Amino acid sequence: MDAQKVDMFMMMNSKYFESYHLNAIRERLLALDDSKAPQVQMLQFKEPTTALIISLLGGGHLGIDRFYIGDTGLGIAKLLTCGGFWIWTIVDWFLIQGATREKNMQTFQNSLY
DSSP letter string over 28-68? Predict the structure, then answer.
């Protein structure tokens, strides 16, 4: 993939990833075959801020925030335990954005194989 396309991808999608992932993503994109470029550019990532808003507005104790980012198992566990008796809900208010960015990184890595 040429440098201009990589820079455009990085500019538009860097908010979806942890900052320490950005160099690895850039290197992987530069080494990527041009035939896979459209596939990577069409990826849709989950918005970390949206996950936090869902978690804050009542989705935390129902597991909706975890369902949103694709953690179905954890979503079911939060639903059945009412957010881990609210303790898990409060912890997730601080961790859900990082978890969303990690899921986005997994989505990116899975698209390259």
Answer: HHHTS-GGGHHHHHT--PPPHHHHHHHIIIIITTTTHHHHH
